[in-house]
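queue> holo job accepted (DTB)
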Amino acid sequence: MVGTGTGVGKTHVSVALVAALAARGNKVCGLKPIESGVDGTSTTDAEHLALVSSVQPEPAPYRFAEPLSPHLAARRCGRAISLEVAGAWVDRQPAPLAIVESAGALLSPLGPGLTNADLVRALSPDAVVLVGLDRLGILHEVACCTLALRALAPGLPPAVIVLNPPAAPDASTGTNAGELAALGIASGAVVMPRAAPTAPASLAAAQVALARLAMS
Ligand SMILES: C[C@@H]1NC(=O)N[C@@H]1CCCCCC(=O)O
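queue> job finished
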C-alpha cells in the first residue's frame, strides 16, 4: 500500500481491506513496518491495523516518535532503516495474507537514496495499491506514481488505484476515477465512500478493490 502523498488515507484503505479479508474468514494481518509520529498520545496506524487483523503481528521494527519523514525520524534517534530488516519482519508474520502499509508517500525517503518504492521492490508483493484523494491534481499524481513504480519497482502488476474522499470536495471530485481510465493513466479506480473504514459501504468498496487485486 503506497500513497500519492502523505495524509491521503492509506490507513483508512488498509483497515477496510484487512477488515474485508478478515470478514471472509481469512487469516490476515495489516502491517506497518515503518512508522513515525509514534509518541504514545494517539492510536498509531499499526494499532488501527492490528484492531481489524485476524492474526496479530509482532511489534514493528521501526517505530519513531517524531512525526517526520522516516529517514529523518530514524536518523534523529541514531538509527538507519534497513529494507532487509523490514522485509524479514513482514515475511515472518504468521498470516498467509498481509496488507503492508508504507509510511508517507511513494517517494518519501527511508534513508539516503532509499524510498518507499525501494521497499515495494524489496517486498515484491503480489499486488500494489496506490491510494490518493479524489481531488484536483490526482491525475498528475497517479501518472507520476505509476511511472515511478514502473521504473523503480519493475515487474509488478499495475497498481490498483483507490481514491479517498477529500476533506473539501472540488469540481473534479467524482470525475477522477473515470478520467484516469479514459486517459489511459490507470485502468480504473475504486472510489471509497465517505464512511468509516469498517462501515458496510467501505467494506463493499474494499471487496471491489480486492477483486481487482485478485485477493478475493
Ligand atoms: C508522520 C507520518 N507518520 C508516518 O508513519 N507517515 C507519515 C510520514 C510522512 C513523511 C513524508 C515525508 C515527505 O515525503 O516529505
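queue> Strands lie at 2-3, 28-31, 34-36, 62-64, 97-100, 109-111, 114-115, 129-133, 160-164, 189-191.
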